[in-house]
Structure formats: C-alpha cells, structure tokens
Amino acid sequence: MNIVCVGAGSMAESMVHGWIQKKILKPEEIAVTNKSDKERLEFLKDEYGVKIVQEEKNELKNADFILLAMKPKDVEAALTSIKDKLSGDAVILSVVAGVSIQTIQKYVGNLPVARAMPNTSAKIGKSATGVAWSRYVSTNQQHDLRNLLSSIGGVTVVEESQLDAVTAVAGSGPAYIYYFAEAMTEAAIQNGLSPGDAKKLVRQTFSGAADMLQHEDFAELRKKVTSPNGTTAAGIAALEKNDFKGIVSQCVEQAAARSQALGREFE
Ligand SMILES: NC(=O)C1=CN([C@@H]2O[C@H](COP(=O)(O)OP(=O)(O)OC[C@H]3O[C@@H](n4cnc5c(N)ncnc54)[C@H](O)[C@@H]3O)[C@@H](O)[C@H]2O)C=CC1
Ligand SMILES: O=C(O)[C@@H]1CCC=N1
Questions:
Q1: Same-domain pairing of 111 and 188
Q2: Residues that bind NADP(+), according to the entry (predicted)?
C-alpha cells in the first residue's frame, strides 16, 4: 500500500509514526510533501525513513491513499497542485477540520474521499478518531482505512454530519483536558504546594483517572470518590454552583460551530 502525505506538519507526523511503529506500512511506502519547507521533509526522511515527493510528483500516481493534512485555508491550493497527478483509484483521506467531502470533490472530482478527525494523542497510538466516507469508497478501501486509523488509536465510524461534533469533542478535546490540568496545577500552588509537587500530583491524578475511565461508568466513578459531606462533595458543589456542565456544553457547542463555519468559509 502506498501513501502520500500532502502536508507534513504535526498531525501527518503523528500518523506516520503510528503506521511505521505498528508496522501497518513500511517507511518506503510513505512519501511526504508540503508547501515549501524542505528542511521539514528532510527531517521526516531522516527520522522515519520515508520518501520525499519529487518535483514531478510521480509518487502521487501510484498512491492508494493521499493523506490531506494542511490547514483548511490551504486545501484549495494543495488539491489544485496535485489533482492532475492522481489516479482514479486513490482514496483521499482528509484530516482537515471542517472542510467537507463535497468541497474536496469540487477540486478532485468523484474520487473516493474519507474524512477523519483524529487528535494529537495519535502520537502515542491513543487518538480518538471519528471517520466518515463518501459512497465512492469501496468496502476494501473502508477496510484499509479502518486499519490505517486504528494504528493510531480507537476508531468510530460516523455520518459526515456528525464530524463537527467529533471535532469539538475528540479533535479539540485534549486541549480542554490540558487546560483543566493547567487550572488544577495553578490552584494547587495557590493552596500551598510547590510547582514541582503540584505538577507531579496533577499528572498522576489525570493519568490514574484516565485509566479508571476505561473500565467503569463515569458517574459511578465520581460517586465512589464523593463521601457524603466530605471534601469532594464540597469541591463538586463549587463546580455546580458555577455551572460547570453549562460551561463545558458551551465549549463543545462553540467548537462545533467553528468547525461548521470553517466548512462554509472554504466550501
Ligand atoms: N493539531 C491537531 O490537534 C489536529 C489537527 N487536525 C487538522 O489537521 C490539519 C493539519 O494540522 P497540523 O498538522 O496541526 O498543521 P501544521 O501547521 O503542523 O501542518 C500543516 C502542513 O500543511 C502544509 N501545507 C500548507 N499548504 C500546503 C500546500 N498548498 N500543499 C502542500 N502542503 C501544504 C504545511 O507546509 C505543513 O506541512 C488541520 O487542518 C487541522 O484542522 C485534525 C485533528 C487534530
Ligand atoms: O483547532 C483546530 O482547528 C484543530 C482541529 C481539531 C484540533 N485542532
């Protein structure tokens, strides 16, 4: 299987790392290209043994999959520059936030297109990835797509219309968790812990809780920590008084709305 990564930033690197580490692809089956940063491509070649797409872009002709991994504003230029080199059998796998299958097909015609929304935990094989595909994607190609994506974490197949919600929850989600960790660390320091101890305790608390979440119901886990009239109840009461769930709901709603707006902006 041959893959060309068009866009060679952090998301493309996370995926390349997963594919090679899990032996889904050999380094020589992967080629990378970007807008103009040659040094970045040389780095990826040295680090992972992947190929660099050459001037004539012949690598595109033999590609089974084309990973699109650039910012939404760059999709039009990127697709316009490669469309004449694509074979009719290649699947375009886009991880670009917001930009629809229909918009991608506007530039490349009726090629099979899949849209995935991974997150940066792909780097350690723990992405939560949502994926949707067009009707031109064959059953075999769907199978290959699941394989490619499961090498970087868990995969959930959704309708394309649900990808804005997937983006708001899973694509952006790690940043909310990091923000919460920052806030807990600052609060720990304000309550008398040293910065080093605060960070160590927060890291381990998040890590342990994330592991526990894999095995039990979320609300049940919370209830087990919360003694009647105890410390956790006092802490949660402060969250409830400040409408924590309402804040999280707004956060996800705004992120999903932004994903939709990006789609409209670049359609
Ligand atoms: N970073 C994240 O957490 C996630 C990002 N995404 C999506 O992945 C996409 C890429 O994000 P990052 O890797 O973080 O961005 P990045 O800024 O690290 O990389 C973007 C890459 O696109 C290349 N590029 C720009 N214009 C190009 C063109 N005309 N032709 C070829 N390559 C071109 C750049 O040279 C660069 O290599 C974005 O659309 C983003 O919405 C999706 C899920 C999570
Ligand atoms: O913030 C963004 O637009 C991208 C999409 C999901 C995560 N990062």
A1: no
A2: 69-72
